[in-house]
Amino acid sequence: MVSRQRMWRVLPVFALLALALSGCSNSKVEMNVLDPHGSAGEKQLDLINWSFILMLAVFAVVTTIYIYVLIRYRKRKGIDRMPEQVHGNTVLEIVWTVIPIILLAILAVPTVSTTFDLSEKPKTKDAIRVVVTGHQYWWEFEYPDLGIKTAQELHIPVGRKVDLEIHGKDVLHSFWVPSLQGKTDVVPGRVNHMTLDADKPGVYQGKCAELCGAGHALMDFKVIASNDADFNKWVAEMKAPPAPVTTASEKKGEQLFQQNCMGCHAGINPNVQGPDLNKFGTRTTIAGVLPHDEQHLKQWLHNPQAVKPGALMPKINYLQPDEIQALTDYLMSRK
Amino acid sequence: MGTLIVLIVFALFLTAILTGGYNKTFLERVKNSKVWDWLTTVDHKKIGILYFLSGFFFFLVGGIEALFMRLQLVVPHNDLFVGDTFNELLTMHGTTMIFMAAMPMIFGLMNAVVPLQIGARDVAFPFVNALGFWLFFAGGLLMNLSWIFGGAPDAGWTSYTSLALNNYSPGPGVDFYVLGLQIAGIGTLIGGLNFMATIINLRAPGMTFLRMPMFTWTSFVTSTIILFAFPPLTVALLLLMFDRLFGSHFFDYTMGGSAVIWEHLFWIFGHPEVYIVILPAFGVMSEVISTFSRKRLFGYTSMVFATVLIAFLSFMVWVHHMFTVGLGPVSNSIFAVATMAIAVPTGIKVFNWLFTMWGGEIRFTTAMLFAIGFIPTFVMGGMTGVMLAAPPADFQYQDSYFVVAHFHYVLVGGTVMGLFAGAYYWWPKMFGKMLNETIGKIHFWTFLIGFHLTFFPQHFLGLFGMPRRVFTYQPGMGLDSLNLISTIGVVGMAIGTIAFLYNIYWSFKKAAPAPADPWDGRTLEWAISSPPPVYNFAQLPLVRGYDAWWMEKQAGNKSLPPAEPLGSIHMPSSSFIPILMALGFFIAGFGFIFRGDFVGAIIGLVLVIVCLFLRSFDRDHGYHIEPDEIEETNKGVQA
Amino acid sequence: MATHTEASRSPHMPNHLETATFEGRNKVLGFWLFLGAETVLFACLFGTYLALRHQTMGGPSGHELFDLKLVGLATAFLLTSSLTSVLAILAMNQLKKKVMMFWLAVTVLLGLAFLILEINEFIHYVHEGHTFTSSAFGSSFYALVGTHGAHVTFGIIWISTLMLQAAGRGITEEMAPKLFVASLYWHFIDVVWVFIFTLVYLLGKVG
Question: Has residue B75 got a pLDDT over 60?
Fold first, then answer.
């Protein structure tokens, strides 16, 4: 049974085309609806394939008649034929009304059952609860049961259900991880739920899919799935007290951070809020899009809007180079 | 500053009126000029041309916007148009193409053809017809002026709140969207109303509902949808205007409002809108395929039934645009099944077209080529439409390039191809000149190939995780080559469009006068001269069956049987009030957009009210064309 | 006269001056279609109001604000005006100009009375802290009731204008459809008011 279901996903032309076209991608970050790594994504792909096959059958019939008609009944030179003025054909017309209805009924049954299936909250006790909040233009992830708050990277254990509670504060966004699960909108003033899981360790690209302003295209995040041991290690790391500030440069950086960044990055002012930076050193990206290194951090600090148009973070271009270095050192040491 | 501009415009306008009034010969010259004639016309044929050509102008504008977007996306991390600029382009492209290009061009064909097809001398309300056009034009102009005055709208053509509220879109951009669409929308609404009344009341004797040509039927049904779908848009825009200009809280969740209400109102309008623009294209296809297959339309009654059913269902499915909002599985399932149901009547239409060609004698004219290219293209759009109807799968497609591919297959493969087919088919009737068939064929092939090259890869872009409305993407994620192909395809579409432009030039400069019936047509419009005389039919025709003109030709008649004796014909007078009233709305729109003390808005609205009174007290009953005058110019119907 | 034979052939009852001419028939049909669009417009405003009516954000609720006695009086004025506009159209079809003008005047006066009561009511609400900008409830309330009020205002101006025209021109085949559609419009705003009375005021009182 399992192998037959696997066949389902490999056989269709769709998947073949997908392989041919995406074969060149050697990136480790996965982002492909046709190659899912979670149970929700697999159910969705099953439905995509099923509907595609049904539609392909219809398309084949239409195209066959179409090509036949165009060749057989084209006007030939020198022949002036008067076609018979047919009004219609009741039997034919009933046939092409009833058959589509049957086809759609065949599609509607799995559609409705999957719709209800995917809307269920996880029943298992070991599900991880995460509160997701969409901001212009970054994602906040809070694990209320674990006491962890982070941004841009959603860490999940492989094989366990993750119960996402999706909140919004400013405009509409949409939470999408193509390889794991479809979209759920971030609607300010409402709480939405979505369940996802990953079946193998890996990094899955996440996207904002609802136009949310100038920086919409770069409102990226990552879902990092790891096995239980690695996940627990990450949890412990996140819950550990902040790394000590050791070098002189880091100390100076800490001071600069408190003077320049705390207003937004420590949750003091609830209206102006940036990501929590307590464990910034453990991240793999800056602002969700840049590689995580000193050079790019400086680039971001100098002019965030050049990297991500419309970013709400002010430009930190008024500090001296040594001060920027100190701030960078401090931030990178936050593990 | 806004107030100042408005005042200057108004002062110039007053001077123009006053000096004109003092100088009688000047006024006389103005009144006899061609420009004045076109500005004040209430003749449906001229209004049709105005609609079609200004719609085509906006089509070019929207096309250039699309070209810019594809240029930005040709390689990853491109920095040609980023951030808000790109958002302005995508918003203006969508809004322009739907409201300023597709709908006006459809109204253009409807105006040019429907009264002829039902054997009428004009529409039910010629004045309202002119007003509808000028309102659309004022709205379209207003919206496109945003590029110069403070930035174009950038919240998407759907203009979702809260992004479209003051807090997140502080500039005047969204105000231009709100006011421009509101004005154009009123024009469309009264246009739709006019065509409903026309088709109900003005059919020639014998032209029963079930003898009406398919294009007239689809125009009728589209008008009905317009009548019931535009008020929700009016309300949505009104509420958004209140939120932005007058501090109300309909969509602001911090004060109890709800962004979801906007989505509902917008899509209660927005989904029927899709059928507003596609049904007339279906009508064009039915006419073209039937004419060039030299066969009666197969299953005419079921075509009519399917059209009406599609219109009915179009109001029942709007939530499929909102599957990811979180309305719950019950609501999602109901709307999913309703959406799938639309595939049935649409399928009926496709098979009817195929079987119209079956047994026919197919002539591959340019109009027919567009119709033939339309069938598989549209069927592909329909296939992805059914796929999109399944909510769990839609969670993946929603707001991705897959959706972009889908609706371009339907809107370009359906509506635009339909409009081109209609243009080639009815051009001789509208302008009295033929379009060039060779250039037409270049137009068709480059456009069709370019179209598929552009949009087919976009299905896969979506499935590989590219959301729509993004100005860039990361390299190495499988998106690079597909985006490149997609941009290359635009070249084909651009060449096709330029070929059409050249063809228009050719027809005006070099084409010979068109005969009355160049295609061996089947419906009434081909029984009268090209272009028709101002009164269309010297005597109203008697309609004796479906495909009335074809029937008469088969019976050996050279003209339609008259239903009335030759007599004096009553014609409506031209009027400058429609354009003046549209100017009032235009000024008011500017006044609202520039906020401040709303002086401009008040001046504009006062002008509108003045026009209403002018019209109400106007006792001009039109003029009559006497039989001897008709005999002189009579090239059309003879008894 | 062609118009007479037209009138007797018309599906409507004879002596209906408003549909005696071709233009008149178009106008009446077009106006019915317009009312269809208006119905959808009000339906959307009703939907918005019903969705937002509990979002008072700490301000006074409908239950606290609404005074059914005054609103009842306003309702009585408006419903009566519907009756008087019917009487005016009956008089029109009997070609009794003076009677028609009298009933039209009564209609306008009743409309004015309704409008004064409504403005009075709004002023009272604003003093209670229930304004257009105070909450989503306030916004949706004024949008719905205010749009209706604007329609009443327009109707009053419209009917007054037509009275002015009819005074000079008399009851003609050209005037009759104008007067008839104005009275259709007046009935329509009456019907909308019945729904407002039920869904805004009564429902607001119930909770």
Answer: yes
B111-134 pLDDT, tens digit each:
999 999 999 999 999 999 999 999
Q: What is the CATH number of the domain that holds C120?
A: 1.20.120.80
Q: B401 to chain A, minimum CA–CA distance in Å?
A: 10
Mean pLDDT value of segment B379-406 = 96
Question: Over chain B, what is the mean pLDDT?
Answer: 93
Smallest CA–CA distance, residue C44 to chain B, in Å, is 6
- pTM (predicted TM-score): 0.93
User: Neighbours of A (≥3 Cβ pairs closer than 8 A)?
Assistant: B
State the pLDDT at residue A24. 43
Q: Examine residue C77 and state whether it is found in any structural domain, yes or no.
A: yes
Q: Tell me whether residue A32 is in a domain.
A: no
C32: CB partners within 8 A, 6+ apart? C184
Instruction: Please tell me if residue B82 touches chain A, with a CB cutoff of 8 Å.
Output: yes
Which of residues A239, A270, A286 is at a domain's end? A239
Could you tell me the two tokens for B495? 């060449």
Closest to A325 in 3D by CA, of A264, A250, A259? A250
C135 vs B196: CB contact, 8 Å cut-off? no
State the Cα–Cα distance between residues A165 and A143, nearest whole angstrom: 10
Residues A42 and A16 in one domain: yes
> Residue B364 CB: number of other CB atoms within 10 A?
15
With contact defined as 3+ CB pairs under 8 Å, the chains touching B are A, C
Domain that holds residue A284: 248-332
Residues contacting residue A290 through CB under 8 Å, at least 6 positions apart: A296, A297, A299, A300, A307
CB interface of A with B, residues 31-70, below 8 Å: 31-34, 41, 43-45, 47-48, 51-52, 54-56, 58-59, 62-63, 65-66, 69-70
Question: Which strands sit side by side in the sheet containing A128-135, from one edge to the other?
Answer: A148-151, A138-143, A128-135, A162-168, A192-196
Contact B472 A218 (CB under 8 A): yes
Q: CA A168 to CA A174: how far, in whole Å?
A: 10
Where residue A105 sits, what CATH number does that domain have? 1.10.287.90
User: Residue A202 forms beta bridges with which residues?
Assistant: A225
In total, how many domains does chain C have?
1
Q: Output the domain CATH number for residue B537.
A: 1.20.210.10
Q: Do the strands A29-30 and A128-135 form a parallel or antiparallel pair, or are they unpaired?
A: unpaired
Unique residue bearing structure tokens 């399992």: A2
Number of folded domains that form chain A? 3
What does the mean pLDDT of chain A come to? 88
The angle, 0 to 180 degrees and rounded to 10, between the axes of the packed helices C22-52 and C136-169 is 160
Element counts in chain C: helices (H) and strands (E): 8, 0
Burial degree of A279 (CB within 10 A; 0-12, 13-18, 19+): buried
Domains contained in chain B, number: 1
Q: Closest Cα of chain B to A18: distance in Å?
A: 7
Q: Do A185 and B326 touch (CB under 8 A)?
A: yes
What ipTM does the predicted assembly reach?
A: 0.92
Cβ separation of C29 and B242 shorter than 8 Å? Answer: no
Residues of C in contact with B239 (CB under 8 A): 48, 139, 143
- Domain hosting C178: range is 41-206
Determine the structural domain holding residue B465 and report its residue range.
Answer: 33-575+620-633
Chain B residue with minimal CA distance to C47? B261
Q: Is residue C198 part of a domain?
A: yes
A164 and A234 belong to one structural domain: yes
Is A31 part of a structural domain of the chain? no
Neighbours of B297 (CB within 10 A): 27
The verdict on residue C32 lying in a domain is no
Q: Looking at the domain assignment, is residue B597 inside a domain?
A: no
Q: What per-residue confidence (pLDDT) applies to A25?
A: 43
Q: Poorest-confidence range of A268-277, B182-191, B270-279, B537-546?
A: A268-277
Domain with residue A197: its CATH number is: 2.60.40.420
Share of chain A above pLDDT 90, in %: 70
